[in-house]
Amino acid sequence: MTRIFKNTGDVGLTMADLIHMREARAEAVSADGTLIASIENTSGLPQVWMRAAAGGAAWKVTDLPERVVQMAFSPVGRDLLVTIDCGGDERFQFHLLSDGTGPARALTAAPGVVHVWGAWSPCGTRIAYASNARDARIMDIHEMTVATGATRFLHKGHGFQEAIAWTPDGAGLLLRDSLHGTNQQSLALLDIATGHVRNLAPETGRTRYVAARMAKDGSGIHLICDQGKEFHALQWLDLAKNQITPLIVVEGRDIDLWAPHPDGAQAWVVVNEEGASRLALMPLVGGDGVDIALPLYGVIQSLKVLPDGQLLMTLEGPNDPADLWRHDPTAGTWTNLSQVPKAGVRLADRPMPVVARLPGVNGAAVPHLVYAPTGERPAAGWPVLFIVHGGPEAQWRPTFRADIHHYTSHGIMVVAPNVRGSTGYGRAWQEADDVEKRMDSVGDLIALARSFAAREDVDATRIGVMGQSYGGFMVLAALTEAPDLWRTGIDIYGVANFTTLMETTGPWRAALRAAEYGDPVADAAFLADVSPVKHLDRVTAPLLVIHATDDPRVPMEQGEQVFARLRGRGHAVEMLRIEHEGHGFVRLRNRLTVFGRIADWLARTL
Prior knowledge:
The chain is an alpha+beta fold and 606 residues long. It has an eight-stranded mixed β-sheet, with helices on both faces. Strands 1-2-3-4 form a four-stranded antiparallel β-sheet, with no helix packed on it. A four-stranded antiparallel β-sheet has the order 5-6-7-8, with no helix packed on it.
């Protein structure tokens, strides 16, 4: 294991130092505008930190034994609701920090139940949320009086449903229903007094509602959605007419986030440009906008307008871990509010990823990001590591990845593809891997790898593939479909057997996965056939399997199946089991273990 931390690269970036770099994100602002809370991992586990909006050092507010996942200030005071789970099991529980200070008081105490955060009521006395307390497979809508903890059942669900906003008068709730999957959602308005549910936004095809904000006068809802469009746009739903009208549309691009300008006639929008963020101020009705230069290349993860008209956001880039940034539109200045510890590592001069496209299945252009290695090129060419994102309804974006800096500084080229099924390139590309087209995404990955193998600056005998979650499926499928291509593989909590996945994944998620992967009954034969465990006899590359004990999405039995089958055949396979983590690794000690092991594995096998 000593090879992990040896300074063998041109700048000697050790995995340990890179993993010790901290981040701050997911900011929330108190109703009076005086406090800014954020989730930071400075202590080694995501907790709530607070800072005065006027400036100054931050202080740690929570010291919980588990990670903080979400938080939301009351709309009328400084009470802060936080969401936690246990070991990453995603069975979320609510806690309250009165007046924004500790200790945290538990509002829910049912560790086997999932509580999905919704919203504070306008008066700040109640919260709305979804939970599967009645039926593990179904999310019902509930209300809680915060002061007493008294709860009330409001609406019986039929699948995965969320309460995402209150009406301004506090008499109703906006519901988002994903009964048919996250890409075929519907909206409804619940009248709390009568229980009546009014369906909104008449269907015009498959729609995904990314964000919804009720107008202060209750006349309508601002939505980021793709109803009637290939890409997500800012649209207006008139509640009286039950009609959607596009407001801001950026052709060929998704709008990821928006925030209203104080003048009411414009909006700040964050546009997805090949994965990176572009910030612009645009009129709500026609006309050109003005681009706002960001302090760094990367991705805006959140966007808010402060009471003084300044913008607040979480911003991160390939060379910059997430920090809180404030922008003064009048002065045109940017201020890094958090500046969390970076372990003494400087990455400002490191190469940026380059966006490119190469042919995939049927000649389709497959976007991908290339991270160039540094140092002297080996005579035979660079080794290449493909890293495949999860989802598949996700996009590889130029965010901060500590491990990539280790790989590239130790002479490994990294390629991160957005194969079909990825978001950010329109609905047609996103749906191009659904059900019976599943293996076309694997074909894209293999085609890209063969293109890189043909390059003069690449060693075709040293190409590896790594991925997590659905990306783990891509790893296993690629190893079985093109065994001659790969030198090594790393499967991180990947899907290996769709049949057993549908039986063991969290019950509240099963229907969502069926919409993407296929019906476990009607498509049983197909799901069995595309499951990599059925074809592991084809694998020739050594494989590292990493899985966590408390993963609710892809349970550890998936990794165990792969390990047991390959080990039984005498194949070169290792498995790293991580205790008390879920679908990802958040504890510092576990991140050091996992990524240290990966670095050691690549040193030995790639």
